[in-house]
Automatic annotation (TrEMBL):
Cited Gene3D superfamilies: 3.40.1280.10
tRNA/rRNA methyltransferase SpoU type domain sequence ranges: 33-171
Protein name, as recorded: tRNA (guanosine(18)-2'-O)-methyltransferase
HAMAP family per the UniProt record, alphabetical: tRNA_methyltr_TrmH
Residues binding S-adenosyl-L-methionine: 109, 152, 161
Chemical reaction(s) catalysed: guanosine(18) in tRNA + S-adenosyl-L-methionine = 2'-O-methylguanosine(18) in tRNA + S-adenosyl-L-homocysteine + H(+)
Family classification: Belongs to the class IV-like SAM-binding methyltransferase superfamily. RNA methyltransferase TrmH family.
GO MF assignments: methyltransferase activity
InterPro entries, sorted: Alpha/beta_knot_MTases, SpoU_MeTrfase, TrmH, tRNA_m1G_MTases_N
Keyword tRNA-binding among UniProt keywords: yes
Organism name: Flavobacterium quisquiliarum
Name of one Pfam family that matches: SpoU_methylase
UniProt-listed PANTHER family: RRNA METHYLASE-LIKE, TRNA_RRNA METHYLTRANSFERASE SPOU TYPE DOMAIN-CONTAINING PROTEIN
Enzyme superclass (EC): transferase
Length: 220
């Protein structure tokens, strides 16, 4: 349960404009879709995908670091790491199990004989959109466990796009369609409170000292 008194205490430190922006952004956040990236060697690509998630309202990004355990490039992410939840996994199986347990269908974003064009994709089901490595694409394990395959229609000679570009195109298209639909895609009231608290903490300098002072004055 969220400590509403603590939330109110922290938000009282923020400007009214900051608090209003939080509510406006949270109104457009969703967990109906989530994004997963697998062993992306160029870390700036993962950072760019995170930025696209933040811009287009995807709340959670799942990062599989089975081979390349690198850190998010903060310059590319441009602060997006403060507002997007990063779920890290050290194995493909762990990520797949977690997402399936949350009720997501696994969608591999890759050309495939049974793939679906972006504009024809059924947005009604909660979906985890998987993006693979720059050279090799998604692993066989993900392909074998995928519930569906999705691709961007292209009419040029080039057969593929950079992962960060592909993610931006797909996320923008699907979230725009989602917001025009009557699907229940928004965060729950409890999820919004959780984000308000986390974002308030992320916005306040010296939060540890302020938190200690609050609980000294308001023992549990």
């Amino acid at each position: 349960m969220i400590d509403l008194d603590y939330l109110a205490f922290l938000e009282n430190i923020l400007t009214d404009n900051r608090k209003a922006n939080f509510l406006k952004v949270l109104e457009n956040r969703t967990k109906h879709f989530t994004v997963a990236v697998e062993d992306v060697y160029q870390m700036h690509n993962t950072s760019a995908v995170m930025r696209s998630c933040e811009v287009f309202g995807i709340q959670e990004l799942n990062v599989i670091e089975q081979r390349f355990g690198k850190r998010i490039d903060k310059e590319i992410a441009l602060g997006a790491q403060k507002w997007v939840d990063i779920n890290r996994f050290d194995s493909v199986s762990g990520c797949l199990s977690d997402l399936k347990g949350k009720g997501y269908q696994i969608i591999a974003t890759t050309p495939h004989e049974k793939d679906c064009m972006l504009e024809d994709f059924d947005i009604s089901k909660p979906s985890a959109l998987f993006f693979g490595t720059e050279k090799e694409g998604l692993s066989k394990e993900i392909m074998d466990n995928a519930d569906g395959f999705l691709k961007i229609p292209m009419v040029g000679f080039t057969e593929s796009l950079n992962i960060s570009v592909s993610a931006a195109i797909i996320i923008q298209s699907l979230t725009n369609r989602l917001r025009r639909s009557d699907i229940n895609w928004k965060l729950t009231d409890e999820e919004i409170l959780v984000k308000r608290l986390l974002w308030a903490k992320n916005s306040i300098k010296d939060i540890k000292r302020i938190e200690e002072r609050y609980y000294q004055d308001n023992p549990r």
